[in-house]
Amino acid sequence: MQLGLVLSLAFALVIALFAVQNTTPVALNFLTLHVDQVAVSLLVLGSAMLGAALTFAFGLPREVGHRREKGALREQLRVKERAPQPASAISGHSADEAILISSASEEGSETKAPPLPNPPPPGGRE
Questions:
Q1: What is the mean pLDDT of the segment spanning 37-42?
Q2: pLDDT at residue 41 is higher than 90
Q3: Which residues, 6 or more positions from 112, have their beta carbon under 8 angstroms from its beta carbon?
Q4: How distant is the alpha carbon of residue 52 from its chain centre?
Q5: How large is the average pLDDT for residues 12-37?
Q6: Of residues 95 and 37, which shows the higher confidence score?
Q7: Following DSSP, what letter does each residue of 21-88 receive, concatenated?
Q8: Are the C-beta atoms of residues 30 and 42 closer than 8 Å to each other?
Q9: 3-state secondary structure of 8
Q10: CA-to-CA distance for 66 and 63, rounded, in angstroms?
Q11: Strand 33-39 versus strand 25-30 pairing type
Q12: Helix, strand or coil for residue 18?
């Protein structure tokens, strides 16, 4: 983003320097528009401004689409973050082990679930 801004400013500076150095009046004929004398600098600056405005106008729908997509993705992320996590994802145990743990805690009885085996270390060695 910052690189684009710097390049745009550098390009604008080059156009401004070109326009200031070329002030000779010329005739302008465009479709039905006929002007006998207009400074080249005004033509260059006007053309640059028209090009920038058209670039902005044609790029605006794309930018709006990107912002809408970004907002939708952020909303999806918020929904997923609010959703409850499955017990296996929370405890780090398999689904069967998580069921044993949750059923033992829900009963509220003095009986405890059997101890869970420790997961094997990486590489399969003990």
A1: 86
A2: no
A3: 104
A4: 23
A5: 85
A6: 37
A7: H---EEEEEETTEEEEEEEHHHHHHHHHHHHHHHHHHHHHHHHHHHHHHHHHHHHHHHHHHHSPPPHH
A8: no
A9: helix
A10: 5
A11: antiparallel
A12: helix
